[in-house]
Amino acid sequence: MAKAVHLVDQIEIPNGVEVEVNNKIVRVKGPKGELVRDFSYAKNIDIRVENGKVVLETFFANSKTKALLYTISSHINNMIIGVTKGWRYKLKVVSSHFPVTVKVSGDNVIIENFLGERAPRKAKILEGVKVKVEGKDIIVEGVDLEKVSQTAANIEIATKVKDKDRRIFVDGIYIYERGVAE
Hints:
With 182 residues, the chain is of the alpha+beta class. It contains 2 helices and 13 strands.
């Protein structure tokens, strides 16, 4: 297994975005907000800001270190996109048996009358994420990709149908679009 002698990855910092790196804690500020992430677990990867770019550098990297470098690079890039444009997930309410009502209450999404159940199902909304219900669509938006995607997953998992034939009981809430909010 060959080792890469010197690996460098650079991420361009767009106008209006500030990136600070302090002991592998990356802070990204932009027009939509601020994100902070700790990469201190990456022992042999150097992260710094240089000439308007975030530079990630390592020496004598094996395959795991190389993968870690590019993963951290993707996380920082997602943080930059989040504070400039934001992230959006769209979900669709599908019901063929009972009319389902969905509403947002505090930090929960409440799904009522799902498959005729009396008790409402609840899905947790993570901090910093906005959820809107527009008819049969649910729109989840925020600056932190991981929190937005986890909130969308929480809503989808809350309506998981168990012990029924999935070809007949297609009821549920499903993610149908995800990406950058523009």
